[in-house]
Design a protein that fits this description.
This protein is α+β, with helices and mostly antiparallel strands. It folds into three domains: about 60 residues, Uridine Diphospho-n-acetylenolpyruvylglucosamine Reductase, domain 2 (2-Layer Sandwich); about 130 residues, Uridine Diphospho-n-acetylenolpyruvylglucosamine Reductase, domain 3, CATH 3.30.465; about 60 residues, UDP-N-acetylenolpyruvoylglucosamine reductase, C-terminal domain (Uridine Diphospho-n-acetylenolpyruvylglucosamine Reductase, domain 1), CATH 3.90.78. Helix content is about 25%, strand content about 25%. The chain has six helices and 18 strands. The strands form six sheets. It has a five-stranded antiparallel β-sheet, sandwiched between helices. Strands 1-2-5-3 form a four-stranded mixed β-sheet, with no helix packed on it. A hairpin with a 2-residue loop joins strand 15 and strand 16. Helix 2 runs antiparallel to helix 4. It is globular, with a radius of gyration of 19 Å. The chain starts with 12 loop residues before the first strand and ends with a strand. Bound molecules: flavin-adenine dinucleotide. The site of flavin-adenine dinucleotide has 32 residues, from strand 3, helix 3, strand 8 and strand 14.
């Protein structure tokens, strides 16, 4: 059924394909889809949206959307809620839809060397907060001072970082139907030229080790304590294994790439095979890092 909310600033789309909003280029449609123009627009939408479930996505770089799609309303924050402001030489305030690459670039230009570990991690700030995105032993929640969240009824709260517990690729403290809309982050500062160099080094490292020429979602599994998911997948001879259009990358075994026409079902079958094989031969149950959405 088509719904209409004349008070909104943009179009509410019905049966909107989501594959193009994910880095895997996979996924069925959203029953309803909306990209808010600003926070006020998001509040109006959530005030008006009474019944069906709500899902918020960022740049779709860590989600597998199932082929049947997502019921209810999907709110897409990438390229909306995208204001970024430096508060002083160490501190920035960023809305949740800001692209992480842009955020790192801005921080680097201001000499905030502490932000460079995020160089090359795709996605939005909101997704990074939810996933506690990180690299090289560092992670974003080390730098969060406070966040603003919104709930299912459009109510906004400012919350201190101390209200959350961040660990490897996850956080505790966010309620069901509560989402990030902005954050204040504080990074160490240093020399601008050194920060720029460090950012380039991190980007080059990724280009060398990751299959960035094909659609993927980055690492599919979390690294188990004291080991690497990629190593475990590789020693079991699974590199290059393909189901339908989904293939375990030859370059990085913890990446599953879309060779052109992969379905979410292909990716899930491959993930199940990896988990079963590694558990059987190494006694380790790999945990999925990627969030699976939809029925
Ligand atoms: C090539 C490649 C390399 C990568 N390398 C890394 C890496 O080094 N380190 C790393 O940590 N990750 C990495 N990733 C994974 C991914 O980029 C990060 O997890 C990123 O932070 C996800 O952001 P997103 O906006 O794309 O989130 P999405 O994929 O859109 O969403 C991820 C989850 O967060 C939820 N979410 C999104 N926005 C919000 C919000 N505003 N409030 C609350 N919940 C929200 C979604 O519902 C979903 O559950 C990589 C991915 C790719 C494709």
């Amino acid at each position: 059924m088509n719904k209409s909310f004349p008070q909104l600033k943009g179009p509410l789309l019905h049966n909107h394909p989501l594959a193009k909003h994910t880095s895997w280029k996979i996924g069925g449609p959203a029953e309803y889809f909306y990209r808010p123009v600003d926070t006020e627009d998001l509040i109006k939408l959530l005030n008006a949206w009474q019944d069906e479930p709500v899902t918020i996505i960022g740049a779709g770089t860590n989600i597998l959307i199932r082929d049947q799609g997502i019921k209810g309303l999907v709110i897409h924050l990438r390229n909306s809620l995208n204001k970024l402001q430096a508060l002083d030489e160490n501190t920035i305030h960023s809305e949740a839809g800001v692209n992480l690459t842009y955020l790192v670039q801005k921080c680097t230009e201001l000499g905030m060397i502490g932000a460079t570990f995020m160089a090359g991690i795709p996605g939005t700030l909101g997704g990074a907060l939810k996933m506690n995105a990180g690299a090289y032993g560092d992670a974003i929640w080390h730098y969060v001072k406070s966040v603003e969240t919104i709930n299912r009824h459009g109510q906004i709260k400012t919350r201190a970082a101390t209200e959350f517990i961040a660990s490897y690729r996850q956080i505790e403290g966010l309620a069901k139907n509560e989402w990030f809309i902005s954050a204040e982050l504080k990074f160490n500062s240093g020399e601008i030229e050194k920060a720029k160099q460090q950012m380039q080094t991190y980007i080059q490292k990724r280009e060398k080790s990751q299959p960035l020429n094909l659609p993927s979602c980055g690492s599919v599994f979390r690294n188990p304590d004291g080991d690497y998911a990629a190593r475990l997948i590789e020693v079991n001879g699974l590199k290059g294994k393909q189901i339908g259009g989904a293939k375990i990358s030859e370059k990085h075994a913890n990446f599953i790439v879309n060779c052109g026409n992969a379905k979410a079902a292909d990716v899930e079958s491959l993930m199940q095979e990896i988990v079963a094989t590694v558990e059987k031969s190494n006694g380790i149950k790999l945990i999925t890092e990627v969030h699976i959405l939809g029925d």
